[in-house]
Design brief:
Elements lengths: L4 H50 L6 H16 L4 H46 L4 H24 L3 H7 L3 H14 L8 H15 L4 H11 L19 H21 L16 H27 L4
Family: Belongs to the SYF2 family.
Function: Involved in pre-mRNA splicing as component of the spliceosome.
Main location: nucleus
Length: about 300
């Protein structure tokens, strides 16, 4: 195919026009992009100046720019997998070291407490077995002595002051406790022995309701006497009552006979009596006056009496 020279010239013109249009378009696009960038920079500067004008005067501009740059660098930098692994391992190591330090501190604290307990236990073991009771008793005695001194300084009787602080219930409870601890104090006197015997005998008496009702019917109004009633010496005991009294007296005699047992005879003892009655008298005299006549007897035996 043969192309004429005129057609080739036209094609060249068209290509040249297209090339010029392309270059013009590229230059225009670059200019537009540059204009857009300049406008953004201008707007940013205006906004930054307004912020600086309205912010606190002490705040400098450099920290703001450094913060902007730091945030931009944080956004642009992304940690790698190796850095993440190293960070995780370091945090785990720090946790383990912290736990180890805590355990070490607890061990030292436990060692210190154990040592203190051992020292206290050793002190307690060296003390007497009844140390706590003795300590309480000594403290009570010290308090009592202080109270006695205070009462003496005021001119008061300590026992009377002490009794004023004791209630009737406490006193009755202490008396019951004493009786329970030592119910039978033994022979203290003939009057007390008779009173104890009376209480023992009255506890053995059982009421006879039939005889009570019978006497009530027989006496009538005199069963409950008044100041004008004369019933003294009119009562006649029944034969059954007399028999019960005799039986009770015989039991008392039998019981008393068991108590008065014969004492054992000592062949090696000194004979200072002429009969059984005189021996009992000498024992009574020795019981009451033996400590006063012991020296006289020894002088008589040695033959050194004046």
């Amino acid at each position: 195919m043969v192309v004429s020279s005129s057609a080739t010239a036209w094609w060249r013109v068209i290509f040249f026009i297209l090339f010029l249009f392309q270059r013009t378009l590229l230059k225009t696009t670059k200019h537009v992009w540059r204009i857009h960038t300049l406008v953004k920079i201008y707007l940013y500067n205006q906004t930054f100046r307004k912020y600086c004008a309205t912010s606190v005067p002490q705040r400098s501009v450099l920290p703001l720019r450094s913060e902007v740059m730091a945030s931009a660098s944080e956004e642009n930098t992304t940690p790698t997998e190796g850095e993440l692994t190293e960070t995780f391992a370091s945090s785990k190591r720090e946790d383990r070291l912290r736990k180890f330090r805590e355990l070490h501190f607890k061990r030292n604290e436990a060692r210190k407490l154990n040592h203190q307990e051992v020292v206290e236990e050793d002190k307690r073991l060296k003390l007497p077995s009844n140390w706590e009771a003795k300590k309480a008793r000594l403290e009570w005695e010290l308090n009592e002595d202080e109270k006695k001194k205070e009462c003496a300084a005021r001119g008061e009787d300590y026992h009377r002051v002490k009794l004023l602080d004791i209630t009737a219930d406490d006193a009755a409870r202490w008396e019951r406790k004493k009786k329970k601890k030592n119910p039978d104090t033994g022979f203290a006197g003939y009057a007390e022995a008779q009173f104890r015997q009376y209480q023992r005998l009255t506890k053995q008496i059982r009421p006879d309701m039939q005889n009570y009702e019978k006497q009530r019917e027989e006496c009538g109004e005199d069963f409950h006497p008044t100041s004008n009633s004369l019933i003294h010496g009119t009562h006649v005991p029944s034969q059954e009552g007399i028999d019960r009294m005799v039986e009770d007296v015989e039991k008392q005699i039998e019981k008393r006979a068991k108590y008065s047992r014969r004492r054992a005879y000592n062949d090696d003892a000194d004979i200072d009596y002429i009969n059984e009655r005189n021996a009992k008298f000498n024992k009574k005299a020795e019981r009451f006056y033996g400590k006063y006549t012991a020296e006289i007897k020894q002088n008589l035996e040695r033959g050194t009496a004046v």
